[in-house]
């Protein structure tokens, strides 16, 4: 399952699933991509199909392993990954080093176990209001699910996950 960043940062007001779908299509990827975010309809941990959660590795755009499987992201340790394995955007840039993402932080709106935090997901990702809050993770911690709260007017990295494997 590929974990890929959108091609530019977003505030808390985003149509992330649509952006993931559209940018994957433009990159020539044939699988379905969903935002790596908890939403009002779904917890982050359940975004990937149940049949694909245990046996497929989570890899970057170049096939390098980030996690042994989807479930391992939600084992309670904050989604610990090797920071030396880059996370790429759909257009092939490394979000950890590219200046297009000045803040190396990803939105997620979840607990360490991938459950939605209704008080911290920028009003279901529909506001960039400075008074609203969203849960996010600084990538320098080496965790996708670090528990930091930020104002929704910040422009952060948004990740997309291939939510169904197509061979």
TrEMBL record:
InterPro entries (alphabetical): C-type_lectin-like/link_sf, Collagenase_NC10/endostatin, CTDL_fold
SUPFAM superfamilies: C-type lectin-like
Domain Collagenase NC10/endostatin: 1-166
Protein name: COFA1 protein
Source organism superkingdom: Eukaryota
Record gene name: Col15a1_1
Pfam annotation, one family: Endostatin
